[in-house]
């Protein structure tokens, strides 16, 4: 089995300016007490995810992500929360990109809602990133509002 690395959940600011809110991925495992602090990289528009009720939430949040190195490339497992999910509107993808947001390394399309499974975890396999890439950002997409919400920075395991 490949090695797995995670840096912990991302901090985000609510659009109401309430301050930083820790994504609740800690209970889902994979986070150690000595994790380095999160790094803020996404724009305010991408992070916007109201702290109000699920029906008002505009974007899904990535609560946790891990990367393992397999013989056919990297496998990224992303845990996503989209409590507003219904057949009419749901989180329909997640992507793995550079921490500066300029390069997308891979996208996992999600073909249906996960209303009865919140949060949910899905994987993207066979991912390749350029040599020297030590961290990537995982971000989810809402079918109506596009890319946004809380993201997660993950360390790429060494070869």
Description:
- The strands form three sheets. The chain has a four-stranded antiparallel sheet with strand order 1-4-5-8, with no helix packed on it.
- It has one domain: Immunoglobulin-like (Sandwich), CATH 2.60.40.
- 3% of the residues lie in helices and 42% in strands.
- It is an all-beta fold.
- Strand 9 and strand 10 form a beta hairpin.
Task: Describe the structure in brief.
By secondary structure, this protein is mainly β. Helices cover 3% and strands 42% of the residues.
List descriptors.
single chain; 159 residues; mainly beta; Immunoglobulin-like; 4-stranded antiparallel sheet; 1 helix; 3% helix; 42% strand
What's the SSE blueprint?
Elements: E1 4-5, E2 11-13, E3 20-22, H1 44-47, E4 61-70, E5 73-81, E6 91-98, E7 104-109, E8 120-127, E9 135-142, E10 146-155
Antiparallel strand pairs: 1-4, 2-3, 4-5, 5-8, 6-7, 6-9, 9-10
């Amino acid at each position: 089995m490949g090695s797995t690395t995670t840096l912990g959940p991302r901090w985000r600011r609510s659009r109401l300016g309430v301050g930083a809110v820790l994504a609740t991925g800690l209970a889902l495992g994979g986070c150690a007490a000595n994790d380095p602090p999160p790094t803020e990289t996404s724009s305010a528009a991408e992070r916007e995810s109201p702290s109000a009720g699920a029906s008002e939430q505009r974007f899904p949040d990535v609560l946790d992500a891990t990367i393992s190195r397999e013989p056919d490339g990297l496998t990224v497992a992303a845990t996503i929360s989209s409590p507003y999910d219904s057949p009419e509107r749901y989180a329909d993808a997640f992507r793995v990109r550079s921490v500066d947001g300029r390069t997308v390394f891979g996208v996992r399309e999600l073909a249906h809602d996960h209303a009865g499974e919140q949060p949910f975890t899905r994987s993207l396999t066979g991912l390749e990133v350029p040599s020297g890439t030590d961290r990537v950002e995982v971000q989810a997409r809402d079918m109506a509002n596009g890319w946004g919400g809380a993201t997660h920075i993950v360390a790429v395991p060494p070869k």
